[in-house]
Design goal:
Elements: H1 5-13, H2 22-30, H3 35-44, E1 48-49, H4 50-56, H5 62-74, E2 78-83, E3 89-94, H6 96-133
Length: 134
């Protein structure tokens, strides 16, 4: 949410990267390329094992999956449960904090879908506009 009107001038006069902007902070947590696909997949399933995530998040390397999971765990958006069995078993799941993020991500998804539709309409109109100028 943007700052209240009376505080907007103060907030917008500062360099956004030098102030405590909640949007920038949130994007630093979840904005990395692989974190959103991981969060979406964990949302779909109650708990997921590492190798299943590796298969579902296409293109991710083991190193990036491990780092992304560690970052999400550090911010308490996911939990990591290790079972001491043979072979060892580890499962990941969304925490309440992670689930609280989902309405914002759904709103962002809807906004993004609208932007894709807008871009497609703009692109479809380009040939018609070019013909009108000719």
């Amino acid at each position: 949410m943007l700052p209240e009107k009376e505080h907007q001038s103060d907030a917008f006069d500062k360099n956004i990267y030098e102030s405590e902007c909640p949007v920038i902070y949130a994007l630093e947590i979840v904005g990395q390329k692989w974190k959103l696909p991981i969060l979406w997949y964990l949302y779909k399933k109650e708990s997921t094992r590492y190798n299943e995530l590796k298969r579902k998040v296409h293109g991710i390397t083991n190193m990036m999956l491990t780092k992304s999971l560690q970052d999400l765990e550090k911010h308490q958006l996911i939990t990591r449960t290790q079972y001491y069995t043979v072979p060892p078993k580890v499962e990941y799941a969304l925490t309440e904090r992670g689930q609280a993020l989902l309405p914002a991500l759904n709103a962002l998804y809807d906004w993004g879908a609208d932007q894709i539709d807008f871009a497609k309409k703009q692109k479809a109109q380009e040939p018609a506009q070019a013909n009108q100028r000719a």
